[in-house]
Amino acid sequence: MKAIYDEIGNNYSVSRRTDPRIAEQLYTELRGATRIVNIGAGSGSYEPENIEVVAVEPSSVMISQRKAGSHRAEQASAEQLPFQDKSFSHAITVLSMHHWQDRARAFKEINRVATEKFVGITWDPKAEPFWLTRDYFPEIYEMDKLIFPDLDELRQYFDEVTVRLLQIPSDCQDGFLVAFWKRPEAYLSNEVRQAMSPFAKIKNLSEGLQKLEVDIASGAWKRKNHLLLDSSFIDVGYRLFSAKVRNAIQ
């Protein structure tokens, strides 16, 4: 199956990059890691520099955007990791699980190749929409609720699962869907939207974009979302999880 980012990821590395505050939250769960497999690695964000990492990414377009000197990358899928059993201490994934075709199989693969922990960032489909997906693109919210895993799904395949909220800073440097929650005009940029897979699935963006543009110009957006303007971080359903692998699973 053709990887979605082969089609939409040509400029991914321009606006999708490591945000140090999100990285800090993620790396706290990787203490003690000796070798990491990064599944759905994209162009290489959130890969620790001081630990051996092997990236797994199905899209050749994304692999081609990895910086010179990045960790080694293998073109492969989460469902078929090209490694021997117990090859890594930890497995990580950042906003990737909703793209996997068979999560059950992928989870079993993670249990096969890792010996200690599976750590990642995802979105909780039980979360409420934020202003973009509530007022302008509700279809994104409805789509995401269907494709993101319920966090209880992790407990079927892993032990000692812990979940905590991921704080998204107001000047987030990683341009995923919610990154510009305090900078609404950014969503009017085609370049920004191109790095966000949900927008590629909407056939007609014009109505939502026009409404957003009008609301920004008139001040309606600011009036409706004024409570956000004094916030430095926001919780909009993104979660950091950590789980102990089950090596007995085959």
Tell me about this structure:
The chain has 250 residues and is an alpha/beta fold. The protein has a single domain, classed as 3-Layer(aba) Sandwich (Rossmann fold). Helices cover 30% and strands 19% of the residues. The protein has eleven helices and nine strands. The protein has helices at 4-8, 12-15, 20-27, 60-63, 103-113, 131-136, 138-147, 190-194, 197-200, 206-218, 220-224; strands spanning 35-39, 52-56, 73-74, 88-94, 114-123, 159-165, 168-169, 233-234, 238-244. The strands form two sheets. Strands 3-2-1-4-5-9-6 form a seven-stranded mixed β-sheet, covered by helices on one side. A two-stranded antiparallel ribbon has the order 7-8. β2 (52-56), α4 and β3 (73-74) form a beta-alpha-beta unit. The longest helix has 13 residues, at 206-218. It is elongated. The model is unreliable at 6-10 (pLDDT under 50).
Furnish the topology, listing elements before pairings.
Elements: H1 4-8, H2 12-15, H3 20-27, E1 35-39, E2 52-56, H4 60-63, E3 73-74, E4 88-94, H5 103-113, E5 114-123, H6 131-136, H7 138-147, E6 159-165, E7 168-169, H8 190-194, H9 197-200, H10 206-218, H11 220-224, E8 233-234, E9 238-244
Parallel strand pairs: 1-2, 1-4, 2-3, 4-5
Antiparallel strand pairs: 5-9, 6-9, 7-8
Task: Give a quick set of tags describing it.
alpha/beta, two-stranded antiparallel ribbon, Rossmann fold, elongated, seven-stranded mixed sheet, 250 residues
Brief write-up:
Helix content is 30%, strand content 19%.
